[in-house]
Structures are given as structure tokens and as C-alpha cells.
Design goal:
Length: 277
């Protein structure tokens, strides 16, 4: 019997249609950006490929072309770069992963930086040096009126620009996540991501400690609310190219967000949209 004469349908396939890789434009090639670029070039981020790398010397034409050709733009440069690029990228309808999320501490409403409109892109904040944002975000959604959140960051004095010779640990800051980001813009991105996922920049308490004995960066997160009490601890190796400021896991947190975007779902990212400030 020929195919035209067959009364049976062709067998169905369970394989999804193959789609093209997600194209990424990187802003910055330092400690975080360089590690993400290397991971992309080595094929360690499935479903994602590197399209362009933008640096401070990139021309306006190069920037426009890179954003236009990208599916998602990754900022891994500085608060100043984030401030400049967020409106431009989101206005182009592209999503943007922002590592220098301390930029949002400069604005009463973090969404002020984003372009508006149905075709505007989103800003995505990676978890970075800490985890547990899924359960903490869920706890915040359950109710925040009686919730309390503290984030301890323990780093070497050099990473915190403490010039005094310390022989024992010292608390160098206590205040809100917003204040921490303004006073320690190079070391407070984890606090900002945590705040954006939960109680906001002004209700998240941050304690920064300089410890001359630490070789790694330590983070302790404490949450208390009627829905539950949680204590999370993280100890991260530092990227040797960051002066002790950046945890090595941060670049892989960005990679995980990219994998999730390529797959269309996944944890580990804060989306600044209509119902999340």
C-alpha cells in the first residue's frame, strides 16, 4: 500500500521542534563578564550562544547593532553602565540581565529605569552569590506585614575598602539594603537581589562585617514571619580577578538564568515587572 493509500496517520513524535540558540550580547568582560563569556564560548551554557561583547570603547553604532541582534543583553560592568543601558535595552524590547543591581538603590521605584509599554523588555536580576530566593520570595508573597529579614555579609577588609589594619572582625555597616548599595556599590548586589525578591530595599536589614581571617565570602540570611523561619548560609570562593569583591559563583548564576531563559522556565531569577518592585 502506498503512502497515499494508507488510512493510518503518520506516527506522532514526542520530540519538540528544534529552536535556534538564544543570542547574548555581553556588556563588560571583567571578572563576571569574562567568566560568562568563557562559559558561552566553551559551550557550557546549553541553548545559548555569544553574539557580541560591548565595552566602554564600543561605538554607538556597535551598541545599536549588538542590542538589535541579541535576544537578551547581560550587564556585567558597573552601576553606571546599568543606569545607561537599562532604558535603552528595554526600549528595544529586549530582556536584560543586570548584575550591578545596586543601580536600583538610586531610584525610589526600581522600575523607573525601565522603558514602559507592552513591547518593552524586562530586567532580570540573578541571585548571584546567595540562594534560596525561591522560598523567600514565596514567603514574602504569603505576607510581609510581620516579616523580618536580615542579611549578613562577611568579607575581607580589602574587599570592603577598609584601609585600617584589623586584627579581629568588625561590623562596618548596619542599615537598609538601599543604604548598603549606596555605601558599598561593589559588594552589595546580593543584598539588593534579596531585597527585590522579598521585602524591598528599605525593609531589608543589611549588616556588613570586615574579617581579616576570612579567605572566602560568607553570607547569612535570616527570615522570620508567620509562614516560617529560615536561616540560610553560604560560603563562596572569590574570583581572583575581582580583588576579593566578587564570588566565583556569580558568573554561574548568570549562566543559570540564561539556561532558564533558553528553556522557557526555571528558578533563580527576580523579574522586575508589573507585580514586583
Amino acid at each position: 500500500m502506498t503512502p497515499a493509500q494508507s488510512s493510518s496517520p503518520e506516527p506522532a513524535t514526542d520530540q519538540p521542534a528544534r529552536t535556534r540558540p538564544l543570542v547574548v550580547a555581553m556588556i563588560g568582560a571583567g571578572a563576571i563578564g569574562g567568566a560568562v563569556i568563557e562559559a558561552l564560548e566553551q559551550g557550557a551554557v546549553p541553548g545559548v550562544r555569544l553574539g557580541a561583547v560591548l565595552r566602554s570603547r564600543s561605538t554607538d553604532e556597535e551598541i545599536t547593532d549588538a542590542i538589535g541582534a541579541a535576544d537578551v543583553v547581560v550587564e556585567a560592568s558597573s552601576v553606571e553602565a546599568a543606569e545607561e543601558y537599562i532604558p535603552r535595552v528595554t526600549a528595544a524590547g529586549k530582556d536584560m540581565i543586570v548584575c550591578s543591581c545596586g543601580v536600583f538603590a538610586r531610584h525610589k521605584d526600581p522600575r523607573e529605569l525601565l522603558a514602559r509599554g507592552p513591547s518593552a523588555g524586562r530586567v532580570l536580576v540573578p541571585a548571584g552569590a546567595i540562594g534560596g530566593l525561591d522560598v523567600l520570595s514565596a514567603a514574602a508573597r504569603a505576607g510581609t506585614d510581620d516579616a523580618h529579614l536580615r542579611h549578613y555579609t562577611i568579607k575581607s577588609p580589602a574587599a570592603l575598602n577598609v584601609e585600617e589594619h584589623l586584627t579581629q572582625r568588625r561590623e562596618v555597616f548596619r542599615g537598609s539594603a538601599r543604604q548598603a548599595a549606596l555605601e558599598f556599590p561593589l559588594t552589595s548586589n546580593a543584598s539588593v537581589a534579596l531585597a527585590l525578591a522579598t521585602l524591598g530595599l528599605d525593609r531589608t536589614e543589611v549588616i556588613v562585617v570586615a574579617d581579616p581571617e576570612v579567605q572566602r565570602t560568607r553570607h547569612v540570611v535570616e527570615w522570620e514571619s508567620p509562614v516560617g523561619d529560615y536561616e540560610l548560609q553560604f560560603e563562596n570562593s572569590v574570583d581572583p580577578d575581582s580583588g576579593g569583591r566578587t564570588s566565583a559563583i556569580t558568573a554561574w548564576s548568570v549562566a543559570e538564568v540564561l539556561v532558564s531563559l533558553a528553556a522557557g522556565a526555571g528558578p533563580g531569577v527576580v523579574v522586575l515587572g508589573a507585580d514586583r518592585w
